[in-house]
Specification:
Chain lengths: 478, 48
């Protein structure tokens, strides 16, 4: 990959992001300011930050790569996330907001007990740490390819920049910087697409040069595959604590609702872009390109160093806006579900300090994970799937279904069943098609089987536990 | 302990009393039906 890149644009970009963190740090007085922006965020901050969180370096690189390999039909892979975001804004978030919790494990701990809380914390951490590490690896590709840094130097750079503004202003920094990064991302990706199409001689010559009809078939995947993706994405979203926390951070239910609806709609529209960029990759490079490198190659080979710098800033934005969200989610779990339990009488000042230290710690764990596990992009998907089958259906169950709330043991057992069956399915599954390091399970998604285990345990267990309790209550009254 | 637990669970039960537009209720049920049908469809496809 050739092409020179203007460092100035990238440095200005990073300085602006850190400056915003510094400016917003004045708003952080207590731990709730750090983790939930004092519950004072408006709909647009929520919407833009959700949009930016759903788009990360892995999806920008991976989505473009998958689009190049398989055509535009894989677009539906992401739609479960978006539809569930909209659904959560209308149905789930207004309910959960009334419980005034900060984390998902806290909810389980308060209503059902410590065992429930611990298991939920493990599932949330698995997903968030896996996702953070996955995006750190993607960001590192940039550091290594364009700045000539080693893997460890790249990790250090990523760590310092992302963790710094998070520590300074927590959720405020995440909301504001994500919103700015959303615009950088949209301008960068749309600009790149238009620039490359113009570069190959305009839309007519571009369309004529598309090598395979699969690239224009947005409905090219079969129905069962799309249904599987929708399920997987929806369930990952419902248990995704970073998104959940945006709902808690909103100033009121109405702002939360609209923030989620707009955020989901942004995602539905934006996700067309990586696939179109995949098509441009096929037009420009033919078979002569590593699919995951299409975005970075197009950005640096077609444009002047300053414009290339802007496109790389967009890539950086996509990574940072996802890492900061997941790190904050991990730090919230470490603070609320571990620190506060060990030190229940800790002062607000101590809790705030613990929150900031935990952000640094979360970054460190994610960086070590990224360093230690080479196929981290797989972990990204695996953590999400275990959470999707183990935690999400149970969360929906307790929020919407009364008898389930009365079946304490069943709740724990259902989470365990879903997580264990999904993990087993992932290990046993030999059907994974690996497309340039990104795992796309084409045939039978482990979530589908894990979900069955969770649902069967949920309904059967609730029937036994709740009905027994009811009948024993009736007997004792008699 | 049991009483305290029941009092807390009441918070969750109170969520069912949040007023919501009838269209939300109807749409929610439709979504549930759609989700259940899709899930069954996937299993029928897998098993056939």
């Amino acid at each position: 990959m050739g092409g020179s890149v203007s460092w100035t644009v990238l440095v200005i970009y990073l300085v602006v992001i850190i400056g915003i963190g510094l400016w917003l740090s004045r708003r952080v007085v207590d731990s709730e300011d750090l983790m939930l922006a004092g519950r004072k965020a408006g709909r647009w901050l929520i919407a833009f930050s959700i949009g930016a969180t759903w788009v990360n370096g892995a999806t920008l690189m991976g989505g473009t790569g998958v689009g190049y390999n398989t055509g535009s039909g894989t677009y539906w892979l992401h739609m479960g996330f978006m539809t569930a975001t909209i659904w959560a804004g209308i149905y789930l978030i207004p309910r959960i907001r009334r419980l005034k919790v900060i984390t998902i494990p806290e909810l389980f701990g308060r209503y059902f007990g410590n065992e429930h809380r611990n298991l939920a914390a493990v599932l949330v951490l698995a997903r968030d740490l896996g996702a953070s590490a996955g995006v750190i690896v993607a960001m590192n590709v940039l550091a290594m390819q364009f700045f000539g840094l080693t893997f460890v130097q790249g990790l250090l750079l990523t760590y310092v920049f992302t963790v710094l503004y998070c520590i300074l202003a927590g959720q405020w920094a995440v909301l504001w910087t994500d919103s700015i990064q959303f615009f950088v991302l949209v301008i960068g990706t749309v600009g790149l697409l238009i620039g490359v199409i113009a570069g190959v001689g305009g839309l007519a010559s571009f369309k004529a040069a598309i090598p395979d009809p699969k690239y224009l078939q947005f409905f090219g995947s079969n129905g069962m595959q799309i249904a599987g993706w929708l399920f997987m994405g929806s369930l990952v979203t419902v248990g995704y604590q970073s998104i959940f926390q945006r709902g808690m951070a909103a100033i009121d239910e109405n702002e939360a609702r609209w923030g989620f609806i707009y955020g989901g709609i942004f995602g539905v529209i934006w996700y067309i872009l990586p696939y179109l960029l995949g098509v441009t990759g096929a037009v420009v490079y033919g078979a002569d390109i590593a699919p995951n490198m299409i975005y970075l190659s197009l950005a640096t080979e077609f444009f002047s160093p300053a414009i290339a710098g802007l496109f790389l800033a967009a890539f950086l934005a996509s990574c940072m806006s996802s890492i900061d969200s997941t790190l904050l989610s991990v730090a919230s779990t470490l603070t609320v579900d571990i620190f506060k339990r060990i030190r229940p009488n800790a002062s607000e000042k101590q809790t705030l300090l613990a929150g900031r230290i935990n952000i640094a710690l979360a970054g460190l764990i994610a960086a070590i994970l990224a360093f230690a596990v080479p196929l981290i992009l797989e972990l990204f998907f695996i953590g999400g799937r275990i959470l999707a089958a183990g935690l999400s259906p149970v969360l929906i169950g307790v929020i919407f279904y009364k008898p389930f709330r009365r079946a304490k043991k069943t709740i724990l057992l259902s989470m365990l069943a879903g997580a264990v069956v999904t993990t087993t399915m992932i290990i046993l599954s030999k059907r994974a098609d690996i497309v340039e390091g990104v795992v796309i399970l084409w045939k039978l998604d482990p979530v589908i089987v894990g979900l069955a285990a969770t649902l069967v345990t949920m309904f059967l267990g609730t029937y036994i536990e709740y009905t027994r309790k009811q009948s024993s209550n009736v007997a004792s009254r008699a | 302990m049991e009483k305290e637990n029941n009092a807390r669970i009441q918070d969750l039960d109170d969520l069912d009393t949040i007023p919501q537009p009838r269209i939300h209720w109807l749409f929610g049920k439709l979504l549930l039906l759609l989700g259940a049908s899709l899930y069954l469809y996937i299993w029928v496809q897998i098993l056939s």
